[in-house]
Amino acid sequence: MSKRLEILKNSLAKKEALLDSKIQNHFDTVKQTNGQPLNDKRIGTATFKKWEKQNESIKNVEVSIEKTKEAIEREERKIAIVENFKIPKYLRDAIDNGKITQWRKFPRFFFVNGVDKGRIVLLENGVLAHRYLRDVPKEQYPIFRDVFNALNAQSKAYLESNS
């Protein structure tokens, strides 16, 4: 499970607990009337205003829960797209080892961990390429170079064995 999905699920659990407490608070407030008539000029209107505020608060939490559920669905779709995208074993191993990270928006692009700007691209024919190499800071260039060269060598060996 990705960090973002975990955060969203934790948020959903907190919001559902908040909704339960608000509903329970509302029922407790309704019980406070103890069967007394609400047509009193002063107390009746104050009670109705209090109930209306509580109802509005409950509606807001319900809307927030729905937004969080939609965000969880979007995140799960993105994860499914990345998991269904076929990449060679050497790239999967590099992702599992933490050398690179796959971009969920564009699954053909990979970020090198510890490098800000550069990207590794898996082309249609299975060849690796790089992008934004000129934007990589000088102190991070050796990290990018070493990871790219190692993956490129594995890519060439993989392509030769599959030819």
How would you sum up the global shape? Answer: rod-shaped
The rounded distance between the terminal residues' Cα atoms is 35 Å
Structural class computed from helices and strand pairing: alpha+beta
Q: Could you tell me the mean pLDDT?
A: 87
Radius of gyration: 27 Å
Helix content: 55-70%
Strand content: 5-15%
Beta-strand segment tally? 4
Give, in spatial order, the strands making up the sheet with the most strands.
Answer: 1-2-3-4
In N-to-C order, the SSE pattern is HHHEEEEH
Q: Biggest β-sheet: count, sense, barrel?
A: 4 strands, antiparallel
Task: Determine the number of helices (DSSP H or I, runs of at least 4 residues).
Answer: 4
Q: Which residues sit in consecutive blocks of at least 5 with pLDDT less than 50?
A: none
What does this structure look like?
With 163 residues, this protein is α+β, with helices and mostly antiparallel strands. It has helices at residues 3-32, 41-84, 89-97, 141-162; strands at residues 100-102, 109-112, 119-122, 128-131. Strands 1-2-3-4 form a 4-stranded antiparallel β-sheet. The relative contact order is 0.09. The mean pLDDT is 87.
Helix/strand layout:
Layout: H1 3-32, H2 41-84, H3 89-97, E1 100-102, E2 109-112, E3 119-122, E4 128-131, H4 141-162
Antiparallel strand pairs: 1-2, 2-3, 3-4
Helix pairs in contact: 1-2
Quick overview of this protein structure:
The chain has 163 residues and is α+β, with helices and mostly antiparallel strands.
Short key terms for the protein model shown above:
single chain; alpha+beta; 163 residues; 64% helix; 4 helices; 4 strands
